[in-house]
Amino acid sequence: MARLIYSAISSLDGYIEDRDGNFDWAMPDEEVHAFINNLEREVGAYLLGRRMYETMMVWETDPNLAADSPLTQDFAQIWQAAEKIVYSRTLESASTRKTQIERDFDPEAIKQLKKTVQQDISIGGPELAAHAFRAGLIDECHLFLAPISVGGGKPSLPDKVRLELELLEERRFRNGMVFLRYRVTQGRTA
User: Fold this and answer.
1) Is 0.90 surpassed by the pTM of this model?
2) Would you put residue 51 in left (φ > 0), alpha (ψ -120 to 50) or beta?
Protein backbone atom coordinates (compact mmCIF):
# COMPACT_ATOMS: atom_id res chain seq x y z
CA MET A 1 0.00 0.00 0.00
CA ALA A 2 1.28 3.45 -0.91
CA ARG A 3 2.04 6.02 1.74
CA LEU A 4 0.46 9.48 1.66
CA ILE A 5 3.23 11.96 2.49
CA TYR A 6 2.85 15.61 3.39
CA SER A 7 5.99 17.53 2.53
CA ALA A 8 6.69 21.19 3.25
CA ILE A 9 9.50 23.69 3.59
CA SER A 10 8.72 25.81 6.61
CA SER A 11 10.22 28.63 8.61
CA LEU A 12 11.41 27.69 12.07
CA ASP A 13 8.27 29.31 13.50
CA GLY A 14 6.04 27.11 11.31
CA TYR A 15 5.06 29.06 8.17
CA ILE A 16 5.36 28.06 4.52
CA GLU A 17 5.07 31.69 3.43
CA ASP A 18 5.31 34.99 5.27
CA ARG A 19 2.52 37.55 5.80
CA ASP A 20 3.16 39.01 2.33
CA GLY A 21 2.94 35.60 0.64
CA ASN A 22 6.69 35.38 0.07
CA PHE A 23 8.64 32.16 0.37
CA ASP A 24 11.92 33.13 -1.31
CA TRP A 25 13.66 32.35 1.99
CA ALA A 26 12.64 28.70 1.50
CA MET A 27 14.51 28.08 -1.75
CA PRO A 28 16.72 25.01 -1.38
CA ASP A 29 20.41 25.17 -2.15
CA GLU A 30 22.08 22.42 -4.24
CA GLU A 31 22.56 20.04 -1.31
CA VAL A 32 18.94 20.32 -0.17
CA HIS A 33 17.62 20.21 -3.74
CA ALA A 34 19.50 16.95 -4.44
CA PHE A 35 18.07 15.47 -1.24
CA ILE A 36 14.52 16.56 -2.19
CA ASN A 37 14.94 15.06 -5.67
CA ASN A 38 15.84 11.71 -4.14
CA LEU A 39 12.77 11.83 -1.89
CA GLU A 40 10.48 12.86 -4.75
CA ARG A 41 11.80 10.08 -6.99
CA GLU A 42 9.66 7.68 -4.91
CA VAL A 43 6.47 9.66 -5.61
CA GLY A 44 4.12 8.46 -8.33
CA ALA A 45 1.31 10.96 -7.78
CA TYR A 46 0.85 14.46 -6.42
CA LEU A 47 -2.34 15.74 -4.77
CA LEU A 48 -2.43 19.53 -5.01
CA GLY A 49 -4.71 22.45 -4.39
CA ARG A 50 -5.04 25.03 -7.16
CA ARG A 51 -2.51 27.48 -5.72
CA MET A 52 0.13 24.82 -5.13
CA TYR A 53 -0.50 23.43 -8.61
CA GLU A 54 -0.05 26.87 -10.15
CA THR A 55 3.21 27.26 -8.24
CA MET A 56 4.51 23.82 -9.26
CA MET A 57 3.29 23.57 -12.86
CA VAL A 58 6.22 25.70 -14.03
CA TRP A 59 8.32 22.54 -13.74
CA GLU A 60 6.54 21.46 -16.92
CA THR A 61 5.47 24.73 -18.55
CA ASP A 62 8.72 26.74 -18.23
CA PRO A 63 11.60 24.97 -19.99
CA ASN A 64 14.05 27.65 -18.79
CA LEU A 65 13.54 26.54 -15.19
CA ALA A 66 14.60 22.97 -15.96
CA ALA A 67 17.56 24.20 -18.00
CA ASP A 68 18.97 26.07 -15.00
CA SER A 69 21.05 23.12 -13.72
CA PRO A 70 21.21 19.32 -13.74
CA LEU A 71 19.35 19.36 -10.38
CA THR A 72 16.44 21.39 -11.73
CA GLN A 73 16.36 19.28 -14.90
CA ASP A 74 16.17 16.16 -12.74
CA PHE A 75 13.34 17.60 -10.64
CA ALA A 76 11.43 18.67 -13.76
CA GLN A 77 11.63 15.11 -15.10
CA ILE A 78 10.43 13.70 -11.75
CA TRP A 79 7.52 16.16 -11.67
CA GLN A 80 6.49 15.53 -15.28
CA ALA A 81 6.56 11.73 -14.88
CA ALA A 82 4.13 11.73 -11.94
CA GLU A 83 0.35 11.75 -12.04
CA LYS A 84 -1.24 14.90 -10.65
CA ILE A 85 -4.67 15.40 -9.10
CA VAL A 86 -5.63 19.03 -8.60
CA TYR A 87 -8.47 19.92 -6.23
CA SER A 88 -10.14 23.11 -7.39
CA ARG A 89 -13.63 24.45 -7.86
CA THR A 90 -12.39 27.25 -10.13
CA LEU A 91 -9.69 25.74 -12.37
CA GLU A 92 -11.24 24.96 -15.77
CA SER A 93 -8.41 22.97 -17.33
CA ALA A 94 -4.94 21.72 -16.56
CA SER A 95 -1.82 23.17 -18.14
CA THR A 96 0.22 20.01 -17.61
CA ARG A 97 0.08 16.42 -18.80
CA LYS A 98 -0.95 13.55 -16.54
CA THR A 99 -3.23 15.93 -14.63
CA GLN A 100 -6.84 15.53 -13.61
CA ILE A 101 -9.01 18.07 -11.85
CA GLU A 102 -11.32 17.11 -9.01
CA ARG A 103 -13.84 19.53 -7.56
CA ASP A 104 -13.99 18.03 -4.04
CA PHE A 105 -11.57 16.21 -1.77
CA ASP A 106 -12.99 12.72 -1.22
CA PRO A 107 -11.25 10.77 1.59
CA GLU A 108 -12.67 7.46 0.34
CA ALA A 109 -11.17 8.04 -3.11
CA ILE A 110 -7.78 8.70 -1.50
CA LYS A 111 -8.04 5.49 0.54
CA GLN A 112 -8.69 3.59 -2.71
CA LEU A 113 -5.83 5.35 -4.46
CA LYS A 114 -3.44 4.37 -1.65
CA LYS A 115 -4.49 0.73 -2.08
CA THR A 116 -4.10 0.65 -5.87
CA VAL A 117 -0.92 2.57 -6.74
CA GLN A 118 2.59 1.20 -6.40
CA GLN A 119 4.49 4.39 -5.60
CA ASP A 120 3.97 6.85 -2.76
CA ILE A 121 1.61 9.80 -3.03
CA SER A 122 2.61 13.33 -2.06
CA ILE A 123 0.11 15.90 -0.87
CA GLY A 124 1.17 19.51 -1.23
CA GLY A 125 -0.16 22.67 0.32
CA PRO A 126 -1.26 23.01 3.93
CA GLU A 127 -4.92 23.75 3.16
CA LEU A 128 -5.43 20.57 1.13
CA ALA A 129 -3.28 18.57 3.54
CA ALA A 130 -5.52 19.74 6.41
CA HIS A 131 -8.41 17.76 4.89
CA ALA A 132 -6.21 14.66 4.69
CA PHE A 133 -4.89 15.13 8.24
CA ARG A 134 -8.44 15.48 9.58
CA ALA A 135 -9.48 12.32 7.71
CA GLY A 136 -6.51 10.39 9.17
CA LEU A 137 -5.01 9.73 5.73
CA ILE A 138 -1.48 11.12 6.12
CA ASP A 139 1.13 8.45 6.84
CA GLU A 140 4.27 10.59 6.99
CA CYS A 141 5.36 14.22 7.25
CA HIS A 142 8.54 15.40 5.56
CA LEU A 143 9.32 18.78 7.05
CA PHE A 144 12.21 20.97 6.03
CA LEU A 145 12.84 23.73 8.56
CA ALA A 146 14.59 26.80 7.19
CA PRO A 147 16.79 28.79 9.56
CA ILE A 148 14.49 31.81 9.68
CA SER A 149 11.57 33.06 11.76
CA VAL A 150 9.09 35.06 9.66
CA GLY A 151 6.69 36.06 12.44
CA GLY A 152 3.46 35.04 10.74
CA GLY A 153 1.92 33.97 7.48
CA LYS A 154 0.45 30.69 6.21
CA PRO A 155 0.95 27.87 8.75
CA SER A 156 2.57 24.66 7.55
CA LEU A 157 0.40 22.43 9.77
CA PRO A 158 -3.37 22.60 10.28
CA ASP A 159 -5.10 24.24 13.23
CA LYS A 160 -7.41 22.19 15.44
CA VAL A 161 -5.77 18.87 14.55
CA ARG A 162 -3.74 16.99 17.13
CA LEU A 163 -0.98 14.89 15.60
CA GLU A 164 1.14 12.37 17.39
CA LEU A 165 4.34 11.77 15.49
CA GLU A 166 7.24 9.35 15.62
CA LEU A 167 10.58 10.70 14.42
CA LEU A 168 12.00 8.35 11.76
CA GLU A 169 14.85 10.41 10.35
CA GLU A 170 16.60 13.72 10.74
CA ARG A 171 19.27 15.45 8.71
CA ARG A 172 21.08 18.73 9.03
CA PHE A 173 22.31 20.57 5.93
CA ARG A 174 25.26 22.94 5.58
CA ASN A 175 22.92 25.91 4.91
CA GLY A 176 21.29 25.45 8.33
CA MET A 177 18.12 23.78 7.01
CA VAL A 178 16.97 20.66 8.88
CA PHE A 179 14.95 17.74 7.49
CA LEU A 180 12.60 15.89 9.83
CA ARG A 181 10.76 12.75 8.72
CA TYR A 182 7.88 11.69 10.94
CA ARG A 183 5.42 8.83 10.89
CA VAL A 184 1.94 9.95 11.88
CA THR A 185 0.97 7.56 14.67
CA GLN A 186 -2.31 9.18 15.57
CA GLY A 187 -4.27 12.18 14.52
CA ARG A 188 -7.59 13.60 15.55
CA THR A 189 -9.52 16.81 15.44
CA ALA A 190 -8.79 18.86 18.53
Assistant:
1) yes
2) alpha
